[in-house]
Write a structure and sequence with these properties.
The chain has about 200 residues and is of the alpha/beta class. Helix content is about 30%, strand content about 25%. α1 packs parallel to α6. The N and C termini lie far apart (about 35 Å).
Length: about 200
């Protein structure tokens, strides 16, 4: 079996749907720009929607916020946003854009990202499910947890709780917190602990 190559920073994947913009904006407002982590944000978007997510979210953080370009090399303290009509996977520190699968009745871009992150980055991965309808993200969050990564879901503050509750009920979530509390824990934990030490530290 090939050994897993460790990277010198953690990758935080955030998934959301309905109500997610409010939640991720709150998270960003309380998240320092110098955690040493890279962030990827996937929100369900209409394929015909001209996304202004990057522009809107950049108002809530001093991190560099950018819409993802194909095979972009991730850097710490950067916030990457999915473009419309795309799915993304992570491979060896780069984000690869793929066309949305037309045969999917319900696209699952969060599961797709989370699962790829678990497979390639294992304990370097952190997954977060925020407000949203349906169940996208549950399977991928479980994959991150099983690979040794750390997982969070939004608590009852979620405007739409189907997505976070699905992951919680599946047993895929380490910690159930508000976006503000998730930001606080990411800030406190940074690059300074193993994931097992994180689990012991988070309250």
């Amino acid at each position: 079996m090939k050994s897993h190559a460790r990277h010198n920073f953690h990758i935080v994947a955030i998934g959301a749907s309905a109500g997610g913009m409010e939640a991720v904006t709150e998270l960003l407002r309380y998240l320092p720009a110098d955690t040493g982590m890279a962030f990827i944000y996937v929100q369900h978007l209409s394929p015909d929607y001209k996304s202004i997510l990057a522009s809107l979210l950049s108002k809530s953080t001093t991190m560099k916020v950018q819409e993802i370009r194909n095979m972009v090399q991730m850097q710490p303290d950067n916030f990457y946003v999915i473009p419309p009509d795309k799915e993304i996977i992570v491979t060896d520190g780069k984000i690869k854009l793929t066309a949305r699968k037309k045969n999917h009745v319900i696209p699952l871009p969060i599961d797709t990202l989370f699962s790829s992150l678990a497979a390639k980055h294992k304990e370097d991965a952190i997954g977060i499910i925020l407000s949203g309808s349906a169940t996208d993200g549950t399977r991928g969050l479980r994959a991150i947890k099983e690979a040794g990564g750390l997982t969070f879901a939004q608590d009852e503050s979620a405007k739409f709780d189907s997505m976070p509750q699905s992951a919680i009920q599946d047993g895929a979530v380490d910690f159930v917190l508000s976006p503000r509390e998730i930001a606080r824990e990411l800030s406190r934990l940074g690059n300074h602990f193993t994931n097992e030490e994180r689990r012991q530290a988070v309250r």
